[in-house]
Amino acid sequence: MTTLHGNWLIGSQDSVFFLWGEQWQGKELSETKENHPFCLESGALAQFIQKFSPQLDCYSPESIKLSLPSYSPPRKKYFLPLLSGQILEPTAKSLSWQPWQVSGLTFSAGMIIQLWEKLPLAKAEFIGNDLRFWLYLHRWSLDLLARGKFLAGINQGESCWYPLLDSTIDRTRLAKFIQTIPPVCLAYQENSEPQTIILDCLKNIVDARLRQKIDSTVNISPSLMVKPWLQSLSGDHHDIALEAKNLQRLENAYNNWVFPIQESLVNGNNRQLIENQYRVCLSLQPPRLGTAWKLTYYLQALDDPEFLISAKLIWLEGKESYHSYQRVVNNPQEILLKGLGLASRLYEPIRISLEQRHPEECSLDSIEVYQFIRSIAWQLQDQGLGVILPTGLTAGSNEQRLGIKIAASVTPKKGERLSLTSLLNFQLKLVVGEQEISKKDFDKLLEKKSPVVEVGGKWLILQPTDVKAAQAILNNTITPLNLSVEDALRLSSGDNNLIAKLPVVNFQAEGALKELIDNLNNNQGIQLINPPREFRGELRPYQIKGVSWLAFLEKWGLGACLADDMGLGKTPQLIAFLLALKEEDMLVNPVLVVAPTSVVNNWEHELRKFAPTLAVFVHHGEKRLKGQAFAQEVKNKSVVITSYPLIYRDLSTLEAVQWQGLVLDEAQNIKNSTAKQSQAVRKIPAGFRIALTGTPVENRLTELWSILDFLNPNFLGTQAFFQRRFALPIEKYGDQESLHNLRSLVRPFILRRLKTDKTIIEDLPEKQEMNIFCGLSKEQGQLYQQLVEKTLQKIEETQGIQKHGLILTLLMQLKQICNHPAHFLKENSLETSQRSGKLLRLEAMVEEVIAEGDRALIFTQFAEWGKLLQTHLQKKLAEEILFLSGSTKTKDRVEMIERFQNDPQGPKIFILSLKAGGTGLNLTRANHVFHIDRWWNPAVENQATDRAFRIGQKRNVQVHKFICTGTLEERINEMIESKKQLAEQTVDAGENWLTELDTDRLRDLLLLDPSAIIDEEETD
């Protein structure tokens, strides 16, 4: 993986951009000397950037000496440059700046902007922080051009285009760029100043962009002297075709013309633009005893809003420059008057104050203060001026206004359990902040007849609508209100809600309601339940917490989303929860579990494994029950399992049953709220609802809304409201306040633990092995059954070595069918995953591995199947997938292992044939191991697993063994598991023992269970 870096280099003649690449794999240190050992060669760099801009070919190879953060490896005397994203080992020596010779390419301004516009601005892994900084500057230059912030210029006899930074907004943005430039950008050249390098780059790229866009054919009278100048403003030639005398006259005339805005032009010698990073700031001062409101004038530093110089001090000093705390402000009086002149056009009191010789402030009455706060302040800020308002009057979350405090409790009716719809007992009180206001106090405020009043030392605006609403509360004339537990949860989250037309600024819950809210906001306080006695297995501490959390939310009738990382055992937690209900005699009706088709068989096995006392029924297949027959069959069942496609196909059958609970596994399957299955699950009646998913949000926030709306209908409002209130502000504008409010709203209903959590790591074993049971597609089932019947007939007619050969060939072909029909039929591609239950499940699990930032090994004993998988998964996941087999060349093999093991941005999935990759490799970067087909020899499989689970592995390893239900894979797995503890087991030698079975026993082992076949109707 290559990471691109670069910086603007100021030259005596022309400035250029230097681009270089950093690769994860370095050269031998003995060969590098001072050469950067991880630097990409210029030729390889040129090839790399061609992927983004194929037409870009005007660049020059260059080599420069660059000081970079470097470290000394443990027990070494030499230094190495620190790579992007590299985290130093604790034993490595501290960082120091060391010189390195770096090879790269240089680009003119006109060429580099062509590359910049092709590179992503988002957090792409291959873009270094230094290069990303210049990409942001490039976007700002485009913004300046779009707003017309440029001016034609003449500089030392040549034409040019100047960026024009004549607004405080752009000056502020420049200051921000100067503040945030990465330190490494100043290490490319000696004595680099951030402001100088930024302005030089900005000037050059604006000039280059305009020259590319402007037509050289200028329709101006030939007699005009300006025509040669204007014609030279396009294309690559900057020379102005005029005699020296006329050129000097033109330049003098130009300088006189631009003199009023000279300091706003970005050119190489404009020190005023660099040094005078100050703006006018207006501070609203509350009245003291017997005085009026004051609007006081200041100069404010753009890079430090806390640095203020009062107008009074500026006039007293009366100097051309002001010195304070190592800062120098040139022409402070001029800056002050210019800013006040801009403000005077928006606000009359400021205009009047400018009639004074030395304006310092203006006085305001209460109406003018109200006008300033509600409409003028934001207009001034929009023009780039600073505004400071008293505490409580600042628009937004800190603004003081009338509100209400609610004290609430809940008492369930006799024989009725609490739920979201349970009504509250509550009282409303009028408050400002934390201070309650009585009717008498409020009347006194109104007597002042001022829209801006002081309460408890804080100022607030009395808005007419708020006054009217407050009077209704104090006079008990409001419309009768009903508040529910759902309202209480929303109010306690801090989301701004209006009750009786006033914002709720304080919500106090009491009794059981307080317990609910406290436990939802901090699930650590939930009382832990004892592991169910009938649970066959061990629940780890974090899993007991998960079961207790599910039980707590079910008690209150709240939907729950268990969103633990893959491998943390969401399924066992759900099963234990069902057993806990059973122990309390609360499992009176069946629970419906809806899962992806490829997982239905796995659910059946997990339930029989962990909870054999639960009566389980699987609803699938061509001959599945419907209508009254189905209702009668499931009446005495504990759990019914079905698939997402059947939810809407058999909706009339399923919604006729009164379900105790409805559980969605892989709940991201309903992320599209308009899909048939998403709408169908909402129509099924259930006492409680639970969603299991490792990825509650994959791409859009509306996916989260869809899951939460299924769990707790209408809690987040309609989808249109959610889109307007949360999705749009957060996704498009990065609104942090909306994000905070959304998190507060959904946090009580989502429990997500990560494998990287310290408490979880301590609970987990170093290696977790789990069987993944998959069904067969109809095509797989037919191929499997036909092959078994055909070959068994031949086996009955043969003896000895020929019989052994037939059986071994049959076993191999059945494995191929279980993998995918295309594998058995020798097809060139897998076409679709719908033809294979294993592939469906593998795709889903690998997607989750990548989403969680993990890495995985996939082992197969078939090289041809591995190649098919590589091609298919690369296309499906849009990720590079490595594949190592016996035919892989040694050089390629070493490179693959190095990339997977050491490249931070390397491929995350590595497919290996069992024989080629099963021994001798160290692949501890992986924390997932998939055995997609089985060797039926635990020793061989364990050897392969140990590629990841060995010395050097710092994370828990999850081993996933794929098994097709109802086939020889399931039956042989049962035999292996039953004999695993024996010192010697006949199955340990691989498959040869199967050739010794007689035909009847072989038939029992191989025959297909028809219930394992996935109906085509059920294909997701």
Automatic annotation (TrEMBL):
Residues 841-998 form the Helicase C-terminal domain. The keyword Nucleotide-binding applies. SUPFAM superfamilies: P-loop containing nucleoside triphosphate hydrolases (SSF52540). InterPro entries: DUF3670, Helicase_ATP-bd, Helicase_C-like, P-loop_NTPase, SNF2-like_sf, SNF2/RAD54-like_C, SNF2_N. It comes from the Bacteria. The keyword Thylakoid does not apply. PANTHER family: SNF2/RAD54 HELICASE FAMILY. This is DEAD/DEAH box helicase. It comes from Microcystis aeruginosa Ma_QC_B_20070730_S2.
